[in-house]
Structure formats: C-alpha cells, structure tokens
Design a protein that fits this description.
This protein starts with a strand and ends in a 9-residue tail after the last helix. It has a seven-stranded parallel β-sheet with strand order 3-2-1-4-5-6-7, sandwiched between helices. α1 packs across α6, α3 (about 60-70) crosses α4 and α4 (about 95-120) runs parallel beside α5 (about 140-165). It is an alpha/beta fold. The protein has a single domain, classed as NAD(P)-binding Rossmann-like Domain (Rossmann fold, 3-Layer(aba) Sandwich). The model has no long low-confidence stretch (mean pLDDT about 90). The protein has helices at about 10-25, 35-45, 60-70, 95-120, 140-165, 195-210, 220-230, 230-235, and strands at about 5, 25-30, 50-55, 75-80, 125-130, 170-175, 215. Helices cover about 50% and strands about 15% of the residues. The chain has eight helices and seven strands, in the order βαβαβαβαβαβαβαα.
Length: about 240
C-alpha cells in the first residue's frame, strides 16, 4: 500500500489524482489551503485520507508537511500539484510577483522539504506537475512560463544532486499541455484543451511507472518538439495569444 502526499489536492488535477489514488487503495495525505475542500476529500474515504492545511507561500509550510507525513505514517511519493498562472500581457506587477511567490518560492520550499525527508528516510519518489509552458517564454504569461522553466531545471538539478550524494530518490517531471482547470477561466479559447480526468489518469500511470520526464499528452509532445525547433528570432515575432 503506497503512501502519497499531494500538495494542491483541493482542486483541479491534484484533487482528481487524489481520488484515483483512493480507488487504488493507497493512503493519501492531502494538503491545500482550503480546509473545507480537504474535509470533503477526507469524507470520501476517512480510513485512507489524512489532511493538513498548507499554504506553500508561508514559512511554516515545511513544518505543516512534516505534520502531514506524521499523520500518514510516512511518505513514499510526494506529488507537487500546487501552482497559479494568469494571462498578463499588461504586466501587472502584483500578478507577476504572486506567480513568482507561489510557483517559485513556494515550489522550492516544498520540494526541498520533500527531498530532505526522502534523503533522511532511505529514499522515495518526488514528482512535480510543471507545464509545457516552460519550453519557451510565452509573451502572454511571462511569470508563469518563466517559473515553469525554473521548475524543470530545479528538478534536473535535484536529480543530479541525489545521484552525486547517493540518495535513493527518484524524480518525475510531469508537463501537461492546456488542461480545463480553474487556472484557465475560459478554457474554450485554448488549443487542444484536455479534461482533468484524462490527465489525472495519465499522471497516475506515470507515478506507477516512475517515468523521469513526460509530456501529457502525445499531441503536446509533438507540439513541444516543434516549439524547440523554432529559431529565437522567429519565436520572438510569433503572435502566440491565449484569450482572456
């Protein structure tokens, strides 16, 4: 029976993955900011789910994670599914800075805490949900695409560190395309929009097989491959817009 901690389990992809893990018979440690949503998730399977309110932008978040792991009786898998993103062509500073705090500072705060737990407890599986947005800088969402690229690079660096130091930690960087979650307020304007249940099922498969890096789904894998081939001078002239 696996013990998985999901940070960002109160909505969207994190919530759906949590429900799938419950169906698999796993023990689930669910974390998020909204206590009411956590209570609703726990009510689905009280004997399998423990919860802890965590705001990843707060300094006490690692302590809260430690409490959650204690309630769960240990942690085999850590899944980071917490993040925010906004279209911000006006470059409103509050939006950009808030994105940096959550997707940058909050991300580092939590994955380093998970890394430390696995380092001190014989290893484990550290997985994060980043995005294909980290492939190239998107002019419609600068902070979002920049922080997702940072997440990709950070996990690469942690994987190298674990190998250097001989820690038995496995890493998975999960990069979905556009998904119909609350992050996309008007999802009908996004190309090849995927539904949450399908993405969650794919993520569960990835967690079971412990893939190092995966783009969800195959259409987006082709999409990303093409993006990477576009020269910088041409990329900067492309009018890639997502409607608000």
């Amino acid at each position: 029976m696996k013990r998985i901690v999901i940070v960002g389990a109160t909505s969207g992809i994190g919530l759906e993955v949590a429900k799938l893990c419950i169906r698999e018979g796993w023990l689930v440690g669910a974390a998020g900011r909204r206590e009411e949503a956590l209570a609703e998730l726990k009510a689905l399977a009280p004997e399998q789910v423990v919860t802890q309110a965590i705001d990843i932008t707060r300094d006490d978040a690692p302590e809260c994670l430690s409490r959650l792991v204690g309630k769960l009786g240990g942690m085999d898998i850590y899944l980071h599914s917490s993040g925010i993103g906004s279209r911000n062509i006006e470059l409103k500073p509050d939006i950009e800075i808030s994105t940096l705090r959550t997707n940058g500072e909050g991300f580092v705060r939590m994955v380093t805490a998970a890394f430390a737990y696995f380092r001190d407890n014989g290893g484990g599986h550290l997985a994060v949900i980043s995005s294909i947005a980290g492939t190239r800088g998107l002019g419609s969402a600068p902070a979002y695409s920049a922080t997702k690229r940072m997440q990709n690079t950070y996990i690469d660096a942690l994987a190298q560190l674990a190998h250097m130091e001989g820690y038995a930690i496995r890493f998975t960087d999960i990069r979905p395309g556009f998904v119909a979650t609350p992050l996309l307020k008007h999802g009908d304007h996004y190309p090849m929009l995927m539904q949450v249940p399908k993405v969650a099922r794919r993520i569960l498969t990835v967690l079971k097989t412990e893939r190092r890096r995966v783009v969800i789904d195959r259409r987006y894998a082709v999409f990303v491959a093409v993006w990477k081939l576009i020269p910088e001078w041409l990329w900067e002239r492309l009018k890639i817009r997502t409607k608000a």
